[in-house]
Specification:
alpha/beta, Glutaredoxin, five-stranded mixed sheet, about 40% helix, globular
């Protein structure tokens, strides 16, 4: 009887460990306005609670990166133009804390979601692992309306290219 109980305990414990290892990663990130987003890593991308059905541009940028600074006006324009179908999330990764990032976003008139790395560290680590991102910025991960990664780019893209990407990712897959 003791051996049977021990065996059952070992099987139950191994099933628990396997379930835990196969569980989808759960993360959070909090933007400069204080809004928290629950993020789940999926096999094909990310599920960001509240952004289902939207194209998502997850951009990693720096406050002193010239191409990053040059892309801000383009992202502002795109967010205005596609406000119902596009969500832009920019994570500052050059060392600004939450307060500094909030001031930077306000100064630049950023009309999209902006987050300091300290408030999204698990998401940053996850992207580093999954996309083999080595830290070059700007770095864009584009998700389709189902949250699947469809495009990854290191370096700045022209506004017209981003617009074409939005158009492609908004189309329902056949």
């Amino acid at each position: 009887m003791k051996k049977l109980l021990t065996l059952l305990l070992v099987v139950a414990l191994s099933n628990f460990v396997l379930a835990k290892e196969n569980a989808l990663p759960q993360m959070t990130m909090t933007d400069v306005t204080g809004k928290t987003y629950n993020v789940t890593g999926t096999e094909q991308g990310l599920k960001i609670e509240g952004l289902e059905g939207k194209v998502v541009f997850l951009e990693f940028f720096g406050h002193k990166c010239p191409p990053c600074l040059a892309s801000i006006p383009h992202l502002i324009n795109l967010q205005k133009k596609y406000k119902d179908t596009l969500a832009i999330i920019s994570i500052e990764v050059q060392g600004y804390n939450h307060t500094q990032t909030a001031a930077f976003a306000k100064e630049k008139g950023m009309n999209y979601t902006v987050i300091a790395e300290e408030k999204a560290s698990a998401v940053v680590s996850y992207i580093q692992q999954r996309a083999q991102w080595k830290g070059s910025i700007p770095f864009l991960v584009a998700l389709d309306t189902k949250g699947n990664v469809q495009f990854v780019q290191a370096g700045m893209l022209p506004e017209a290219s981003l617009e074409e990407l939005i158009s492609q990712l908004s189309k329902p897959k056949k």
